[in-house]
Automatic annotation (TrEMBL):
The EC number(s) this enzyme carries: 4.1.1.97
Key words, A-Z: Decarboxylase, Lyase, Purine metabolism
Pathway as given in its UniProt record: Purine metabolism; urate degradation; (S)-allantoin from urate: step 3/3
Domain Oxo-4-hydroxy-4-carboxy-5-ureidoimidazoline decarboxylase: 14-166
Catalytic activity entry: 5-hydroxy-2-oxo-4-ureido-2,5-dihydro-1H-imidazole-5-carboxylate + H(+) = (S)-allantoin + CO2
Protein name, entry field: 2-oxo-4-hydroxy-4-carboxy-5-ureidoimidazoline decarboxylase
Enzyme class, spelled out: lyase
Organism expressing this protein natively: Paenibacillus auburnensis
Length: 177
């Protein structure tokens, strides 16, 4: 489907059966194709923003355990473990593949403290940020209460998935959301 993916449009997405829809959009939410599967029942979409809004509502209205699994599906930032191609590209764009040994050690320690406290990895939309911004953010957020950080993580997932959808489905100039 890669030739089709290069020129995906809302009209093409709206014309897909559930299997095609999930194949095209299942990776938008990290390792959670169930979000696309749930959103498919709301076809047709009039804009990328509407599609994104429905996908976010699908994720947020899932049972607590499923939302927790979504949070846990995200990789640690600057991890040496295998990540999805989308996550790898996003992290490289923020310079996380070029950390000094000291920065890598600091981020690894902060990631460990964060995950120990919250039981899910630190999630941040890294587009437009650099490694210093990211280290500062995790250093601040590790001290928050769980409820506040849970909401922040979901908010960041909303930003990440919005970027991913707009990259995959650019809307024509002048399109209405």
């Amino acid at each position: 489907m890669s030739a089709e993916t290069d020129s995906l449009t809302i009209d093409k997405i709206n014309g897909m059966d559930k299997e095609q829809f999930v194949a095209a959009l299942g990776g938008i939410f990290e390792r959670s194709p169930w979000v696309a599967e749930g959103a498919h029942q709301h076809v047709p979409f009039h804009s990328v923003e509407e599609l994104h809004r429905v996908m976010l509502e699908t994720a947020r209205s899932a049972p607590h355990s499923q939302i927790e699994a979504l949070l846990r599906s995200h990789p640690d930032l600057a991890t040496r473990l295998q990540v999805t191609p989308l996550s790898a590209a996003e992290q490289q764009g923020a310079g996380l593949d070029r950390l000094t040994p000291e920065e890598f050690k600091r981020l690894t320690e902060l990631n460990a403290a964060y995950t120990e406290k919250f039981r899910f990895p630190f999630i941040l939309a890294v587009r437009g940020k650099n490694k210093d911004d990211i280290i500062k953010a995790i250093g601040e957020r590790v001290n928050r209460p769980l409820e506040e950080e849970w909401e922040q993580a979901l908010h960041e997932i909303g930003k990440i998935t919005g970027f991913r959808l707009r990259d995959l489905l650019p809307e024509p100039e002048g399109a209405q959301s």
